[in-house]
């Protein structure tokens, strides 16, 4: 926090710290210098003894960081040659010395996931930096009296730094897309530091901002299949090895799909001890259960396999607390299995490797194949139909909900890129950081568990994005080269067999309780503001995939609104929670 007057109130800093305690249950630290205060809660992963923050150098420059710098050992060696003296073995001390050498461009040398704040009293600046893919979150509020920032926007709300006033356009995006695009959040006064962005703050005001891009900017091509296979093997193995750097136990979220199976194959080859793999399953439902396939793969490589059942009871019982954890709202039903998997994994470890990014980088989504087809063959642009379209539920026609997507499409259409690369870049701009990675971060950090994403490593991502289209999509099947690699390394994965998409039976569960849920959901303040209550009640009682997704989105938003706007505690299950009046 930077104020326009000396000494931020200790009570305010304490409130910010308390609200982030779940992210760092292993310790906390604070730093005050005139109008500037930094606070940190620590999840100890590397250098368990001396890695407490804030870090302070002999020139009075201080740093707090959330994340992991995977190339910290190599950077330490390089910096020592220039005379840098390290006080700890922490990976997060390295950016402090990089700043001394490179100034505000220090983050371009980092390989990892991070949200970093540096205060330099000599230059009278505060510097914020976020990793290029936006794996680690960072939010700020720039008001008349202070510039405040935190790893979660919920912390800024809990400390009353910003009022929970909804930004209508972002709420429209949430209703139609299940996430919000760009810098704006659903709360008026809270903004995101964009992925790869560095902000320079002086006197409580942003005076400069610049960005690192996560993807190559030209239209580079890698078309030699044999050479690409060799490069892919080297990049994957190096990335997974770096992402395993830890002084605490680590495991894997194994879905049985291509991406997590690739990580399983890499980890099995790199580790002498059995990999601990966690898989979610949905018993007694109509959706595909991946546990049997994951179990077989785990047995094949000698991994210890933990199966976690996600039941209808879990859905109704856990959803209020999950919505409370999702301060930056994402109506992605995968939050349910992710949250329970994290809760179980956190009982025995602090780090898990996850497959996020594989589809976006290697061309896995069906929407990419659709985007490449001409319209007369059924092709269409991505995200042209909103979740609420056709249901006549919203009070106002949702307008402008694709504006953020259109802006990303415009920015991504760099000369030399193929149509597939443009579609991938659009997903990397918003879908990945503002949906998938928010989901991963909040669901895991709610339990003090760190999620690491080896596909979102510069060596892997640059190679994958530059692959020729034919090495990504071949014969109507995405992720061709990644499948080929997996087919060689772990044939039992049946990488080229048809795979059923991952889904969660939220529509099935909601429909089964439609009569009980309908009047409660229709009466929620957050729903009444934006919807016709009678239409909501009718929607919840209907069945169907699109109907179920729309009902799920409204249910999630109602619970989110109760906690983050009305500030009602998430007590009891969904029905008990919704029954409590404001």
Please supply descriptive tags for the structure shown above:
17 strands; single chain; 5-stranded parallel sheet; Glutamine Phosphoribosylpyrophosphate, subunit 1, domain 1; 6-stranded antiparallel sheet; Rossmann fold; alpha+beta; 582 residues
CATH architecture call of the largest domain? 4-Layer Sandwich
Give the CATH level 1 class of the largest domain: Alpha Beta
The CATH topology of the largest domain is what? Glutamine Phosphoribosylpyrophosphate, subunit 1, domain 1
Count the beta strands: 17
Could you tell me the mean pLDDT?
94
The fraction of residues in strands falls at 5-15%
Can you offer a commentary on this structure?
This protein has three domains: 2-211, 4-Layer Sandwich (Glutamine Phosphoribosylpyrophosphate, subunit 1, domain 1), CATH 3.60.20; 225-366 and 430-493, Rossmann fold; 506-579, no CATH class. 42% of the residues lie in helices and 15% in strands. It contains 23 helices and 17 strands. The protein has helices spanning 10-19, 72-81, 94-102, 153-158, 168-177, 225-243, 258-270, 291-301, 312-325, 335-345, 358-362, 366-372, 403-412, 419-445, 458-466, 469-472, 480-489, 506-512, 514-522, 525-530, 533-541, 545-564, 574-579, and strands at residues 2-3, 28-33, 36-41, 55-56, 62-69, 112-120, 125-130, 139-142, 146-150, 191-192, 197-202, 205-211, 250-253, 276-281, 304-309, 351-353, 450-452. Strands 4-5-6-7-11-12 form a six-stranded antiparallel sheet, covered by helices on one side. β2 (28-33) and β3 (36-41) form a beta hairpin. α6 (225-243) packs across α7. The protein is globular and about 70 Å long.
């Amino acid at each position: 926090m930077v104020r326009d007057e000396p000494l931020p109130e200790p009570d305010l800093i304490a409130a910010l710290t308390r609200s982030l305690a779940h992210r760092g249950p292993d310790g906390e630290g604070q730093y005050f210098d005139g109008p500037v205060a930094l606070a940190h809660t620590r999840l100890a992963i590397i250098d368990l003894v001396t890695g407490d923050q804030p870090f302070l150098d002999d020139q009075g420059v201080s740093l707090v960081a959330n994340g992991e710098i995977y190339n910290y050992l190599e950077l330490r060696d390089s910096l020592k040659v220039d005379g840098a003296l390290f006080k700890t073995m922490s990976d997060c001390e390295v950016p402090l010395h990089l700043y001394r050498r490179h100034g505000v461009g220090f983050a371009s040398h980092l390989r990892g996931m991070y949200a970093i704040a540096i205060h330099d009293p000599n230059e009278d600046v505060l510097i914020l930096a976020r990793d290029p893919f936006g794996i680690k979150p960072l939010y700020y509020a720039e008001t008349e009296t202070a510039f405040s920032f935190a790893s979660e926007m919920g912390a800024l709300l809990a400390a009353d730094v910003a009022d929970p006033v909804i930004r209508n356009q972002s709420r429209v995006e949430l209703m139609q897309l299940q996430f919000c695009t760009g810098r704006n959040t659903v709360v008026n006064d809270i903004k995101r530091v964009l992925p790869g962005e560095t902000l320079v703050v002086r006197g409580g005001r942003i005076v400069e901002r610049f960005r690192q891009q996560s993807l190559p900017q030209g239209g580079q091509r890698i078309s030699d299949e044999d050479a690409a296979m060799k490069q892919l093997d080297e990049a994957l193995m190096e990335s997974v090895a770096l992402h395993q750097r830890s002084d605490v136990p680590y495991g894997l979220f194994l879905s049985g799909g291509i991406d997590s199976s690739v990580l399983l194959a890499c980890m099995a080859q790199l580790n002498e001890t059995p990999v601990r793999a966690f898989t979610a399953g949905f018993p007694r439902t109509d959706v595909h259960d991946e546990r049997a396939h994951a179990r077989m793969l785990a047995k094949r490589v000698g991994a210890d396999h933990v199966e976690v059942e996600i039941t209808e009871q879990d859905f109704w019982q856990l959803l209020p607390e999950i919505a409370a954890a999702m301060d930056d709202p994402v109506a992605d039903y995968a939050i349910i299995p992710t949250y329970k998997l994290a809760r179980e994994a956190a009982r025995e470890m602090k780090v898990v490797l996850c497959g996020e990014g594989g589809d976006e980088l290697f061309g896995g989504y069906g929407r990419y194949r659709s985007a490449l087809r001409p319209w007369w063959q059924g092709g269409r642009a991505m995200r042209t139909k909103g979740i609420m379209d056709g249901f006549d539920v919203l009070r106002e026609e949702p307008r402008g909900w694709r504006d953020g997507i259109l802006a990303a499409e415009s920015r991504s259409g760099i000369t030399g890129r193929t149509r597939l690369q443009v579609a991938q870049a659009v997903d990397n701009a918003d879908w990945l950081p503002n949906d998938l990675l928010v989901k991963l971060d909040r669901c895991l950090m709610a339990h003090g568990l760190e999620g690491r994403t080896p596909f979102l490593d510069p060596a892997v991502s640059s190679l994958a994005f530059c692959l020729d289209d034919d090495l990504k999509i071949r014969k109507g099947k995405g992720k061709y080269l990644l499948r080929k690699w997996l087919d060689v390394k772990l044939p039992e994965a049946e990488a080229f067999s048809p795979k059923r998409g991952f889904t969660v039976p939220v529509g099935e569960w909601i429909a089964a309780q439609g009569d009980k849920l309908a009047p409660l959901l229709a009466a929620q303040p957050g729903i009444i503001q934006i919807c016709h209550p009678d239409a909501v009640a009718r929607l919840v009682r209907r069945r169907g995939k699109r109907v179920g997704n729309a009902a799920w989105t409204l249910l999630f938003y109602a619970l989110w609104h109760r906690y983050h706007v009305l500030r009602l505690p998430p007590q009891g299950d969904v029905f008990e929670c919704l029954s409590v009046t404001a």
